[in-house]
Amino acid sequence: MLLQVPKVLTPDQLAMFRQRLATAGWADGKLTAGYQSAQAKDNAQLPENDPVARELGGLVLDALGRSALFFSAALPRKIYPPLFNRYAGGQSFGFHVDNAIRYERSGARSEPVRTDLSATLFLSEPGDYDGGELVIEDTYGVQTVKLAAGDLVLYPGTSLHKVTPVTRGERLACFFWMQSLVRDAGQRRELFDLDRGIQHLTQAAPGHPALVQLTGVYHNLLRRWAES
C-alpha cells in the first residue's frame, strides 16, 4: 500500500527545519549505504549521530504521534530514528531495495528494526527544484511521487524505488523505516480499510449499534495478527 499522509509538519516547523539544515554537517550519503545501494547512491546525508539529525528527528516522531492516519496505516512497533538527505546538482539514487534489517545504534545496544515500511517526508516545496521524484515500483505498477513540503509518503519496504536526478534547486527530505505490529502487508491493509470505515461511520452515524461490533472485529483481528 502506498499512502500519502498530508501536513505532518506545519509551515513554521518546515521553515525552522530548512534553516537548521542549511548549516548542518552534511556528509556523503554512500557512507550509510549497503554495498549494492552505494553503487546507485549519489546524495548528501546527515550522519545518524549528528545532533541536528537527532533534534529534528525527534520533532518528526512527535508529529507522527499526532497523526491518526499514519498510525492506522503503519501500526508501528519500532521506528528507526529519522534521517535526512539532500539532492542537488544532478544527484540521484538509482533503483534499489532497502535493507531488510536496520540496526538502531542508540545507547549501548544495537536494536534490530525490520523494515516493513519505508517513509519519505518532503521538506522542500516541489516548485523549488526540478526532478527529485520518488519513483516506486509495486504490485500496481510504477508510482511517481513528488509531494508538497510537510507531506509524507508511506510505502512497502519491499518496493524497488529510486530518486530521479535533481537538475535545479535542492531537494531536502527526511526518511526512515519502521517495523509494524502486523508483519503481513495484506493484513495491515485490511485493518487499515476497516479502521477507516469505522471512522467514517462514526462521523456519518454516531451511536450506530454496528460501531461496537465493527470495533470489536477490528481489535480481535489486531489481537490475532499482531506480533508481541
- Structural class estimated from helices and strands: alpha+beta
How many distinct beta strands?
Answer: 16
Total count of helical runs of at least 4 residues: 6
Mind summarizing the main beta sheet? 9 strands, antiparallel
Helix coverage percent? 25-40%
Averaging pLDDT over every residue, what do you get? 94
- Oligomer designation: single chain
**Taking Cα atoms only, what radius of gyration do you get, to the nearest Å?**
18 Å
Beta-strand portion reads: 25-35%
User: Helix and strand succession?
Assistant: EHEHEEHHEEEEEEEEEEEEHH
**Unreliable runs:** none
Distance between the termini: 23 Å
Form type: globular
Can you describe this structure?
The structure is a single chain. With 228 residues, the protein is of the alpha+beta class. Helix content is 33%, strand content 33%. It is built from six helices and 16 strands. The protein has helices spanning 11-22, 35-40, 51-64, 68-74, 185-204, 210-225; strands at 3-5, 27-28, 41-42, 44-45, 76-79, 83-88, 92-96, 101-104, 111-114, 117-122, 129-131, 134-138, 141-145, 152-156, 160-163, 166-180. The strands form three sheets. Strands 1, 2, 4, 5, 6, 10, 11, 14 and 16 form a nine-stranded antiparallel β-sheet that branches. A hairpin with a 2-residue loop joins strand 12 (134-138) and strand 13 (141-145). It is globular. It starts with a strand and ends with a helix.
